[in-house]
Design a protein that fits this description.
Blueprint (H helix, E strand, L loop, with lengths): L5 E5 L4 H9 L2 E6 L9 E6 L4 E5 L2 E7 L5 H9 L1 E7 L7 E12 L3 H6 L9 E15 L15 H21 L15
């Protein structure tokens, strides 16, 4: 493989990557089922206090209620995940963390252990803990500069309107299985 365009390949985070992660308002997760006919999923993530760096080889993030549960289904099936940050300021960089993830569902021992590391958020379904296998920094020359990025409050407002009962009904209807029929948050029989 040509090293042109690749600034660094490592197996753990350095201060440089930690600074980029901590200064970013948005990152993306990517996952896929094992079946070739399955759907690859890419999801934008953000919100203050929902992502933590545990150590140079481990990160974790809250899985908040959304319109689907593809990442939960894929990670449950095979554990594969990639996280990506794009620098939207004047210094172009694309940071990717390749690794294996474990989903700690709400109420599990690991969920309870990790939850205090995050801010309080409604609608938390689980916590993804990611063991980093490879860190990649590449040029971000094609990524636009977007200095006006701000956080949204829409998700929290939507969750408050749903209430506990409405949220439980929504999760049962929308988050039980992936679009490929893989178990995400469905109760095991």
């Amino acid at each position: 493989m040509s090293k042109e365009g690749v600034k660094a390949l490592m197996d753990s985070l350095t201060e440089r990557e930690i600074r980029q992660i901590e200064s970013s308002l948005i990152y993306f997760t990517a996952s896929a089922p094992l079946e070739a006919t399955g759907h690859v999923n890419v999801s934008p993530k953000g919100m203050k206090d929902t992502f933590v760096i545990i150590d140079s080889k481990t990160v974790a993030y809250l899985d908040l209620t959304g319109s689907g549960a593809e990442t939960a289904a894929h990670v449950t099936q095979n554990g594969r995940i990639t996280l990506m940050w794009c620098s939207f300021d004047e210094k172009p960089n694309i940071l990717r963390l390749f690794g294996t993830a474990q989903l700690h569902r709400e109420g599990s021992e690991e969920f309870v252990r990790l939850l205090p590391l995050f801010g309080k958020h409604l609608g938390c379904r689980g916590i993804f803990e990611v063991k980093i296998e490879r860190v990649s920094n590449t040029c971000g020359f094609g990524v636009p500069v977007a200095p006006q990025m701000i956080e949204r409050e829409d998700l929290d407002e939507w969750l408050v309107k749903k209430g506990e009962t409405g949220l439980a009904e929504y999760q049962a209807r929308k988050n039980a299985y992936s679009i490929d029929g893989l178990r995400a948050y469905a109760v095991q029989q």
